[in-house]
Known about the structure:
The structure is a single chain. This protein is an all-alpha fold. Among the domains are: 40-69, Irregular (CD2-Gal4); 607-616 and 637-829. Helix content is 47%, strand content 1%. It has 26 helices and 4 strands. Helix 20 (625-646) runs parallel beside helix 22 (694-717). It is globular, with a radius of gyration of 34 Å.
Amino acid sequence: MDSSSPSSHPPGLSGASVTSDTSSAQPPPPKRAKRRQVSRACDWCRQHRIKCDTSVPCANCKTRGGHCSSEDALNATSLPEAHREIDRLRRQVAQLEQELNAARLASRHAGPYTAASAGSVSEASPYSDGPESTAATPTGTATTHITVPPSIMPFPSDALLPPSATPRDIASRVATDTGIAHAFWGGVHVGTARSPNKTWYGPSSLFYFISRTAAYLDDSFQFQHPDGGDNSSGHANHKSNKASIDNLLDVNPAGMLVDGPAPPSSSTSTARTRPTDAQKQAQAHVHDSTSRPHASIQDALAGARFLTLTQEEYFLDLYWHSYHAALFPVLDEADFRQHYRSLWATSGQDRAPSALVDIVLALCLQIGVSTMVPGMRQKLIVDNDDTSVAGRWYYRRCQALLEYELESPSLSTLQCHILCGVYLCNGTFQNMSDSSCALAVREAHMLGLHLAPPADMTVRQSELRIRIWWALYVLDSKIGMKLGRPFLLHLAGATTPPQPDDSVAVAALSGSSFAPLGDNRSWLSFHLYHSALFQVARAAHVAFYSGNQTPLPVRPGQTLWDHPEALEVHARIALTHGDAFAQWARSVPPALTTARVGGGARAGGDGRPFSTDGSPLDIEPFAPLWVQRQRLLLELMYHNLCINLYRPLISFETSAFSAAPVRQCADACAHHAITLTQIVHQVLSTTSILAGWSEVFQWQWNAAMTLVGFLLAMHEQTRGIHRSDDICEVPIVCKAHAAVELAIAVFDMFGRNFAVATSAAAVIRTLRDKVNYLAQQNARAQRQQAQAQAQGHAGQAAIQAEASPVCVQSQPVAMNGAALPPANGIPDLLNTGPDKQPEVTFSGLDASVLQDTMLMAFDVDQWLDLNALWPDSEGVLFSM
């Protein structure tokens, strides 16, 4: 038999025995699969010293039915695993963002929010996760349940961040900036100086608040504005505005600096002649013909005067301790100095033109000349005595050089346009600054700065690109919120560049040699917390002004103040995001904060940085100048953004303040404006840290006009309230009155450097008199009513003899403890006796004075004429 056949048997065995053994044997058990080894066992398997596998949860934990630590977030143990985990998280975030945007779009089309689909935010606990919350009034009673969309929440409702949270933690919790356009339920068209053209400013702008204040004064004093003109937007919605405010804006403000030095008396004058239509058209033609370069760069250089090498070195040194360290670190100092040295010829007489060097010198001249004595200043400012446009010839040459780089922009081109936006903003050219920022945003996208830096780029280069991106983000946010216009730059989720690194190691590679601040903090930490602050501010701004954030729609032709319920909902939105601001303030390290004298005990406050308790600052005398500026500017910016957050809740309607959240927001706005004024007054009167800093003046102007509007609103709310009543208006009103006097003193100090500050002081003085007049009228009516109720009737002479102001503070005290002159107190504008005439009477508050005053108020933010930058110089672009 063939051995290969199936019936063949091994030698020595019979066929029967083999068959019997085979039939009685069991099938062999399946072979156990080889265990897949893991790099790290789960906690339970490691504790019991048994083998673990790669399944999640592992087989042992799944069998015993317990928790497996492998279910938690895995920690990458190698670089490839870390990259894979990052890619997975990015895809997940992108997917979630798409779902969130789709849900918001669907909810916007679905109509108003309902209680079933929205959460509530309470005043006491803004992060409550219950279905509804009840806000408690000061008397302890409950108010009506108000449902607020959950999308207004800046943080998740499950937990708050700890006080030690970093800016990156805060940024990760801030509501997503989806770039939703404004609802545009308010706005005002304002004509720029000496031009018939008008531009639009949104509801968050100071222009719009001034228009509301002017409308209230128009109604209170019963002044009739001239008829006619365009009134198609924004302020036309105010019922009390009898005519268009735009017509008043055609008057050229006093002290307007055009075509040369202004007359000495024009800076304080308040009366100007209204230009005719022909004159306005002629002025517009001049603007169109002189604002464009006609001559070549070579021809322009022949008629220009520039600084010498020694002078340029002096002014360039000012940049690194001011704009570089305390605003936007968009330059590499070492690379810039090397580039600057390469521009000088061998003889050392002339320098080759450079757009980047020119705009840096323009900024340095802007801040440096303002701190000089008038005699030295005149040697540098030949045809204009306003330091706001010092260095304008460098700005013009920079613009001419940039025209050659627009088609193929470089990183230097982007840096130039960012710094041009800063220069124009300091010179009160608001629309040109906005346009320069818009150009910078497009160039940033052209250069790919909106993406994470490439992996093959050095740390020094990548960190510089990140800093430039976030500086542009701050500039765009600042301009958008200041002017009330849509943002141009938005965060793109997973592709957004990371937060700037502020470690000492990265600071050592930045090209600057500033000393560390301790605790691994560096001079770059200011930029990190500065950008985090604007992320919080933008989240609040988008939530407040977006069209889908309120369940009560604002119909066309109406404003927020026409709906008390909608105003209360917006007040709760502002309070919620106010907590986000406070949480950011708690995260700032001590190295970037300014301490209070005695820990704030002398002023009765808690002494915490960024507080509004009125405690004086304890400015460290031996700290470097750049550190002191970082600390002060960070706190002042915080208060300025809080003012802008709460200011829309200042309402001139009596019914609006009946809601506790609205009143709380208005008081918070006043407290931040008072604190900002006190800080600026103390710093300017005792130090030179902020001397010549134009942006601080603009913040002070913003706070002063806000305080004036707050006092007018409080006058409206306290009508008919007796002095004997225990009302909370009196303390805050007294502090606001004293802060207005401090603001006038601040403008007088700024007036040594900026011509516009003299006009600002005149505006606030005039408005202060009107506020005091209304307060005295209100006080007199209250006392007459109280006397009539107590005695039935009283003699007019007795009432006049007992007359006294509601809030008397004849000698307000500055933040540094120094007393201002008694004349700065709130004067008694009414009769103090039966035979005495009032010092300021109603007859002195005529329509022309009010109109010119509000005109000047509008023009403070757009003070200079375009000819200050592009004068008619017979075709020579860079002539003096």
